[in-house]
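Board notes (copied after class):
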Amino acid sequence: MPKYLIERTIPSIGDVSTSDLQTISQKSCDVVKDLGSEVQWVHSYVTGDKIYCVYNAASEQLVRDHARLGGFPIDSVARVVTIIDPTTAEA
């Protein structure tokens, strides 16, 4: 399944409580469950004013549907074409 990187601007998200992050996460999981097996939330990185999410999805449209149904903002969606890391330098 293709992998996508989603950027979301949410002012002061880095300052929210653990409880609020749990609520947001539960909402995301509920929407993923409703959308079915063709979309998977992998993980997200929370910074001061943004969340960067990694999803596996059959299409970009499913990622956008997830945002719409969950009420999550979406600034950009980019399909990941490959992943590199320090081991790439060893090849």
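Comment from the instructor: The chain has two helices and four strands. Helices lie at 18-35, 60-70.
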